[in-house]
Amino acid sequence: MNLFFRLLVMLARNLLFPRRIGYLDESILNFRVWITDHDAFMHMNNSRYTSICDLGSIDLLMKAGVFGPVRKAGFSPVIVYRGVTLHRMLRFPNAYSIRTCIIGWDGPYVCFKHDFVRKTKLCAEAISIGRMVGKGDNKPDIERILTALDLPEPPKSPPLPDVCRNKIDEVETARAKRAADRKKALIKNKKNLL
Questions:
Q1: 59 and 100 Cβ atoms separated by less than 8 Å
Q2: Which residues of 97-109 are buried (b: 16+ CB within 10 A; e: fewer)?
Q3: In whole angstroms, what separates CA 48 from the centre of its chain?
Q4: 42-76 pLDDT, tens digit each
Q5: What pTM was computed for the model?
Q6: What is the distance between the alpha carbons of residues 187 and 169, in angstroms, rounded to a whole number?
């Protein structure tokens, strides 16, 4: 998170003027492109889109009442995939909004959609996939998190689009390969010590 000032403003607004939305509702944040958001080609830097997506996700989790209970339970979301598609360039001093919603969830994964909109026109869209993590053996899945929220009836996830399902499969494959490689390295090190 490299947008510390914008993060502080967003957190202050949520704490001072709390507004609740549903888990599948849309969060809207309004921003303006600062000159420091530019790259050498004088439009908003690619990495800025991803940082703004982080703000959208945090804002949504706060407004939906998820942020506090998740932190209290010792869980935190880590983005394991993000894809951004640009349609129109944003430049200083353009005003724009980011509209963030949860597409759905599966196991430890939560899928977010982010739309960057300027004057009703879509400038960019992104999909983020976050994986909930905990400390030690505290391995959360969405059902445990929904239980931590103390809801009368936990909501069901909408069907995930193929793009999210495929990316989750890719992440799981990469995680399994990494675990297997670590196991092989440990066995090899043990043999070398003997």
A1: yes
A2: bbbbbbbbbeebb
A3: 14
A4: 999 999 999 999 999 999 999 998 888 888 878 88
A5: 0.88
A6: 27
